[in-house]
Amino acid sequence: LSPLLRAASLAANHAIVKAVEGEQDVHVVDLGGANPRQWIELLRLLAAHPGGAPSSLRLTIVSDHAFFLTCATEVLTAEATRLHVPLVLNPVRAHIDNFSPTVIASLGVQRGPALVLSSTLQLHRLIADATIVRHAEREHETMTRADALLHVLRDLSPKLLVLTEQEADHNDGGEGRGGLWDRVNSAFDYYAVLFNDLEVSHVPRESLDRAVVERLHLRDEIVDIVARDGAARRERHEKMLRWVPRMAAAGFQPAAVTMDGFKETMRLANRLSDGDRQKPLYRVTAVKGCFFVHSC
């Protein structure tokens, strides 16, 4: 429902298509958080690509909701059949909070296929937890579970990792110890924009989908940011300024922003603004491999 996420997923899909260009064996792993609509659009982009879709496409989707996995499998299988795109789906029942070596193994990553990883509004949940990473030939390190997982993902040798996160500071500048009113003010400013986006998205207020987003997902996030502390506080959103060095420390390098992806995301932002170029609702910028989708 979020226009911001619609624009972000479009930019992500164009980056994925560019990364696997010319590859005939492709494996995309959704680590959680993405809407199946994103992968439907990816199938359409691959099918319409001048070189055609890969001869082998595997899509792994991680979720802790069995019903979601069942529905996603059904709609994606139907769309792949309609588009004549060879697709193998690998649903994995798990949640990023509980990732383990067993879960990583169940992703089915193998040498050979071009690997793309995608994480949508997930990785920040691991910032609160510290873990010890053991090395055979140097001293052990203590780091957040988010950083540790980034190292594990880098060791899988992906062609691309698409990380979508909230451009917000709900982790008190990385310290995680802000006062109550600081948290309230920060949450109010950020979530007021999100609720306004739902209002201008033309989704009726009585819509069940909108009610689920507003009264479950967003409400729970606000409660977490304002009222919880320590390891119980999971919604530790950080700005891209902090994610870039995290990813660099794990061995990732910025990917080039594709002009097709940038232009298409700009067009979508314009459509979502009802074509009003004087007072646009959304703005898209790209800096050193990072896409920013802003609400004006």
User: Order of SSEs, N→C?
Assistant: HEHEHEHEEEHEHHHHEE
* Separation, N- and C-terminal Cα atoms: 18 Å
Give the overall shape, derived from the CA principal axes: globular
Strand proportion: 15-25%
Main sheet strand line-up: 3-2-1-4-7
Radius of gyration: 19 Å
Strands, count? 9
Largest sheet: 5 strands, parallel
Average pLDDT reading: 89
Helix/strand/pairing category: alpha/beta
- Give the uncertain stretches in residue-range form: none
- The number of helical segments is 9
| Proportion of helical residues | 40-55%
Could you characterize what this model shows?
- By secondary structure, the protein is an alpha/beta fold.
- Helices cover 44% and strands 18% of the residues.
- The chain contains nine helices and nine strands.
- Strands 3-2-1-4-7 form a five-stranded parallel β-sheet, covered by helices on one side. The chain has a two-stranded antiparallel ribbon with strand order 5-6.
- It is globular.
- 29% of the residues are buried.
Features:
296 residues, alpha/beta, five-stranded parallel β-sheet, two-stranded antiparallel ribbon, 9 helices, 18% strand, globular
